Amino acid sequence: MLVYAHGEVGKVNKNKLLGVVYTPEKIARFLVRWAIRTNADLVLDPGAGKGVFVFEAIKRLTELGCPESKALDQIFAVEYDKTAFEQLKRHIEKEYAKQPDRNIITANFFDVWPGAGSIVLPTVDAVVGNPPYVERQLAENADKIRSLLSASHPDLKLNRSTDIYGYFIIHAADFLKPNGRLAFIVSDTWMSMDFGVAIRDFLLKHFRIKAIIGFDKRVFPKVLVRAVMILLEKRAEGGEPYDNQVAFMRLSDLDLLDRLEGDLYPGKEIDNEGPRVALIQQSKLDQFIPWTIYLKSPEVYLKAISHPRMTKLSELARVNIGVQTLKRDFFIIKESERRRRGLENRFFEKIILSPRGTGIVVDSRKKVTDVVLYCDREKEDLLGTRVLLYIQQAEKTEISPRGKGETYVGLQNIPRIKKAHRKPWYNIRAEIDRRCKGPILIPRRIYERYAVVWNKLMLPANEDFIVVEPKDSRWIVPLLAILNSSLTEFFARVVGHMYGGGVCDLRPDDVKNLPVLDLNTLTDSDYVNLQEAYATFLSSNGTDRRKIDEAIQSILNLPEKLQRDISRDYKEILEVSLLTKRTI
Prior knowledge:
The structure is a single chain. By secondary structure, the protein is α/β, with parallel strands linked by helices. The protein has a domain at 14-296: Vaccinia Virus protein VP39 (Rossmann fold). Helix content is 34%, strand content 19%. The protein has 22 helices and 26 strands. A 9-stranded mixed β-sheet has the order 3-2-1-6-7-9-8-10-11, with helices on both faces. Strands 13-23-20-22-16 form a 5-stranded mixed β-sheet. The chain has a 3-stranded antiparallel β-sheet with strand order 14-17-15. Strand 18 (398-399) and strand 19 (408-409) form a beta hairpin. It is globular.
């Protein structure tokens, strides 16, 4: 049997293992009312929990004219956790004096199939629910789940890091009749992360995407997820792809859901307090571009990046992630620790470890307190050195990688280090020299403060930075000015993925596609203005970038309304970030 997660209940929180996050009633009611259209609809909840969707579905069917005694027979629900399942059964028996043994079942959803298999349910008119929020590293048998889903969807290329709810979306689609509706609330990670490319592609191919609805604050305050509701209609097999307008909405309050029931697709914002809505043609959606931009600031972002003097950062510079050691506490240590152990200095290099401990300019080796193992020599060439003893000790150490449930003897036997094919296994010098040194460092994770670092010493950077090397060395200072501007921060927060705690995460591809002022279009006067503005920025220790913003505005000459809209959306994104941080 497949299970969603593994671990010992008691040692690890059971709800976390099973991905249990209970749904606010308002959300369940809205999703159910949208998905169920007639009193004859068959309904499926693939992760029923304590039954909030089941009971809302009964109410909806009876409102539409279905007798209450029959409504329960039209609802099918699956729940993996036996405790929650028994609670649900008892609640149904108490409320409706009926035992739901035929259609309310305890099973793993991936053991259940429509019309075939050991556990069979029918195809339905509506699928509703809140799939489990299991952390990827806790997911068990994910390879087997992917294999099962690939059998029914041969063109599906699911990433190994796919969250469990992604598998739920795809498997639930198999239970839907043509034109049936799927209404889920899920984490928003699929909209911007790499594993979401396959999910976005699947939705574009198999559904009319009616709406994606996000929230200005976390819906689940005790869980580090940001949630979105997805409203989908299944395309008939072999039918033409849909090209309807997709409504991307952002709600400031759950009470606004009541205002959407009569008009799901307002052509404009209802009012200043109402939903922020962007209507995008489905054919214009690209699975390779993060869809979060359409929730955050679609109109402003799309207008700004279409400016003739804007381009992608990758057109001006080489962009790479900093060194990914795969075992940081071995490869990176404090300089003081290196000295205490007597490890030879010639086998180490200073490394810029974290944005938090780094100023806006790195120009002093003494102030850099971390070092990285910088050795490409074979062990036989290290005889008599302390570094050899350090490496040999690591080769005997027992390691239990988080979430794997397995123990390995020796760092060299950790699967991800073996897959890196380093020769010898501890040699990251080649990787560092190839792509981890550059004059400009962009933090991968943005908190309240955003600052791009000038790496004057060209020291290697850790994976907490994106390393930027301009194609023309004369562009270093102007590009530093541009990347430290409010406009670039705005773009970064739009394309980045926001995690719980108010953290905005940037992937290398996000940074490569970051819209920036095209240095090829600048005049000599523009260069001078940017350089002087950056000097002012440095003199303020990174606290005053008004001169930079003024210089960029002078070059772009953006319309006043667009400037106001950028300022408004920038402030809103920051407010959402701060609110998310405070709700932990």
